């Protein structure tokens, strides 16, 4: 991020939707400039980077970073959660959510992206074995 742009009084907030490995630098610049920031997943691509971002935000003294979660506040998902929480259907055994958009423009998203834009990209795993993990 360009220092003079992020520090401009005209910039009120920042949205980060770049390639995952670029997020740490952009988040730290946004925090240093005191700008609220919405960051798409992944927040960062390593545990060490996550700690650096958390420490920078804590040192700034207030929360500035928000992470995008897939449809977490979508009305239909909230209704489904209410049904599940109500217990009338019993304990869920499996959830399978799919993208609801009818189509994705060609080249915008490919099946390789989840493997190249996540924490897994910096690790060595047998094919198909990458799993998410808690950073806490």
UniProtKB/TrEMBL annotation:
Keywords: Plasmid
Gfo/Idh/MocA-like oxidoreductase N-terminal domain boundaries: 6-69
Protein name per its UniProtKB record: Inositol 2-dehydrogenase domain-containing protein
SUPFAM superfamilies: NAD(P)-binding Rossmann-fold domains
The UniProt record lists the keyword Nuclease: no
Molecular function, one GO term: nucleotide binding
Signal sequence, renumbered to the chain: none
Pfam assignment, any one: GFO_IDH_MocA
Source taxon at top rank: Bacteria
């Amino acid at each position: 991020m360009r220092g003079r742009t992020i520090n401009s009084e005209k910039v009120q907030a920042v949205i980060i939707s770049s390639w995952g490995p670029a997020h740490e630098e952009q988040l730290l610049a946004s925090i240093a400039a005191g700008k609220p920031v919405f960051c798409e997943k992944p927040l960062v691509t390593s545990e060490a980077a996550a700690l650096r971002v958390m420490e920078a935000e804590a040192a700034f003294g207030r929360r500035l970073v928000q992470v995008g979660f897939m449809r977490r506040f979508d009305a239909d998902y909230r209704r489904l959660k209410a049904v599940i929480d109500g217990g009338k259907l019993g304990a869920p055994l499996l959830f399978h959510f799919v993208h609801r958009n009818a189509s994705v423009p060609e080249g915008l998203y490919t099946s390789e992206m989840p493997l190249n834009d996540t924490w897994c990209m910096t690790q060595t795993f047998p094919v198909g074995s990458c799993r998410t993990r808690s950073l806490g």
